[in-house]
Design goal:
The chain has helices spanning about 5-10, 15-30, 50-55, 75-80, 100, 120-130, 155-160, 165-175, 185-205, 215-220, 230-240, 250-255, 275-305, 310-315, 320-325, 350-355, 360-375, 380-385, 390-400, and strands spanning about 35-40, 65-70, 105-110, 130-135, 140-145, 145-150, 175-180, 210, 250, 325-330, 335-340. It is an alpha/beta fold. A hairpin with a 6-residue loop joins strand 10 and strand 11 (about 335-340). The N and C termini lie far apart (about 65 Å).
Length: about 400
C-alpha cells in the first residue's frame, strides 16, 4: 500500500518528508512481529501509527487494544494488563482477564509507556522476551502471542538515568523506532491542516469556512504550536465559533486566539532548532554587518567624489533606522529573534564605519536592556516582558553588565 493511500485511509494531512518517512517505516514493519516504539510530542498523532501497523499485518483480524498507561492508577495497572485472580486484593470478587490474555493473537498499543511503574515494567519485559505472564494473585504461568507497539513523549534515556525506566526494557521496546515530527518542524503542513479543520467545522455546522489573510498565514506558520495538531485544531474551532461576522481572519484577530508563548516562533525558513540566545544574536549581527558593509561602500564612493551616487545614498539612508530596530523579543531557551522597526523619524545618521566598529554583541545586548529599563522606568517585570525573557534572566544580565538604573 503506497503512502498516499495510507494518508487517505487514516486521514493523515501533510507532505513533510519526516512524516512520510514515519509512514513508510510503519508500513514496512507491519508484516513482522517486531516491537515498535513511537516517539513524539503530545498531540502529534502518535495513535494513528499503531493502527497502520496492525491493519497492515497478519494480525489484522485479531484484537486491537489501545491502553493509556498514564491514565491507569499504579495500584490497578498490573491487573489491567495481566489480569487477576479472585481475592487477589480487596475488591477482587471475581477473576479477570487482562489485556495480554484477551488480545492473544492481536496487537496491544501501550500509549505513554514511560509512565509505567518499575514493577510493571519488569512484568512487561518478561512478556516481550518469552511471551509469559502471571496474573495478579496467581502462581500459574500463562502464554500469550501479542504484538506490542508502544509510544511515549517522555525522554526515555533521561528517565533511565534518573532510575524511572528500565534500560533493558527500553532496548526491548525500541527494536524499531518511529519518530513523529512536531508541528513546528512541519511548517509546510500547518496551513493544510488549518484548511482541513476549518472546512470540517463549516461542513458540520453549515457555515462558511474561515480563511486567513497572507499575513495571518505567516503568523500561523511561525507560531510554535506546543500542543501540536491538537492545539491547532482547537484554535481553528475557537475562531470558527467566535468570528461569526468576519470570516477572513487578520493577524490582529488571530493574536487574540494564540496563547502567549514561553518561547517565540521560529524564523521562517530556519532549519536549525538548537540555536542558543547568543547564537541567534551573533547570526543577526553578522547579517547586519553585511548590510552595513554595503552601506559603507556607498558612503565611501560618495565621499570620494562620486556625486552620481548621492541619489543612491538617499535611498539607502532610511535603512539605518531599520538597522537600529530595537530587539523586541529574544527567546530564552529556543531559537527566535524578532526585530521591530524603530519608529523614531528623527533617528540620527551614524557613519557606517562607526556603526561597524561598535558591533559588539555584549554592548548591543546591554544597550537593548538599558533602553527597555528606561522605557519602563526601571520596572523589571515590564522590561522582561518587552524583551521576551524571564525576570530572573533579566536580573542576571543586569548584574553581569553592571547596569544601574
Amino acid at each position: 500500500m503506497d503512502i498516499q493511500t495510507i494518508k487517505q485511509r487514516y486521514k493523515i494531512i501533510g507532505n513533510d518528508p519526516y512524516l512520510n518517512r514515519a509512514i513508510e517505516v510503519a508500513v514496512q514493519v507491519a508484516s513482522t512481529d517486531l516491537t515498535v516504539l513511537i516517539n513524539g510530542e503530545s498531540g502529534t498523532g502518535k495513535d494513528v501509527f499503531p493502527r497502520i501497523i496492525h491493519d497492515n499485518s497478519s494480525r489484522k483480524h485479531g484484537q486491537y487494544f489501545a491502553i493509556n498507561c498514564g491514565a491507569i492508577p499504579e495500584g490497578t495497572i498490573d491487573s489491567e494488563l495481566f489480569g487477576h485472580e479472585k481475592g487477589a486484593f480487596t475488591g477482587a470478587v471475581d477473576s479477570r482477564k487482562g489485556y495480554f490474555e484477551v488480545a492473544d493473537g492481536g496487537t496491544l498499543f501501550l500509549d505513554e509507556v514511560g509512565e509505567l511503574p518499575l514493577a510493571t515494567q519488569a512484568r512487561l519485559l518478561r512478556v516481550l522476551e518469552n511471551g509469559e505472564f502471571i496474573k495478579v494473585g496467581s502462581s500459574k504461568v500463562q502464554k500469550t502471542n501479542v504484538r506490542v507497539v508502544a509510544a511515549t513523549n517522555v525522554d526515555i534515556p533521561e528517565a533511565i538515568k534518573n532510575g524511572r525506566f528500565r534500560e533493558d526494557l527500553y532496548y526491548r521496546l525500541n527494536t524499531i523506532p518511529i519518530s513523529i515530527p512536531p508541528l513546528r518542524d512541519r511548517k509546510g503542513d500547518i496551513i493544510l491542516l488549518f484548511k482541513k479543520f476549518a472546512f470540517d467545522f463549516a461542513e458540520k455546522y453549515h457555515e462558511t469556512p474561515i480563511s486567513l489573510t497572507p499575513e495571518a498565514q505567516l503568523m500561523f506558520e511561525s507560531y510554535r504550536w506546543d500542543g501540536n495538531i491538537r492545539q491547532l485544531k482547537n484554535v481553528t474551532d475557537q475562531i470558527s465559533i467566535m468570528e461569526k461576522e468576519e470570516r477572513v481572519i487578520t493577524p490582529e484577530v488571530l493574536s487574540g486566539y494564540l496563547p502567549k508563548q514561553t518561547s517565540l516562533p521560529i524564523l521562517a525558513g530556519e532549519k536549525d532548532h538548537d540555536f542558543s540566545e547568543r547564537d541567534i544574536l551573533y547570526k543577526v549581527l553578522f547579517d547586519m554587518k553585511k548590510d552595513l558593509m554595503e552601506l559603507r561602500k556607498t558612503v565611501d564612493d560618495l565621499t570620494n567624489g562620486q556625486v552620481a551616487a548621492a541619489s543612491q545614498v538617499e535611498k539607502t539612508q532610511p535603512s539605518i533606522t531599520q538597522i537600529y530596530g530595537k530587539v523586541l523579543n529574544v527567546a530564552e531557551d529556543e531559537d527566535t529573534l524578532i526585530f521591530d522597526q524603530a519608529q523614531d523619524a528623527e533617528a540620527e545618521f551614524v557613519p557606517a564605519k562607526q556603526i561597524i566598529d561598535s558591533l559588539s554583541l555584549q554592548d548591543k545586548e546591554k544597550e537593548v536592556i538599558i533602553k527597555a529599563l528606561k522605557k519602563y522606568k526601571g520596572k523589571r517585570r515590564e522590561a522582561s516582558n518587552e524583551l521576551g525573557i524571564s525576570e530572573r534572566t533579566l536580573y542576571r544580565k543586569i548584574k553581569d553588565y553592571g547596569i544601574d538604573i
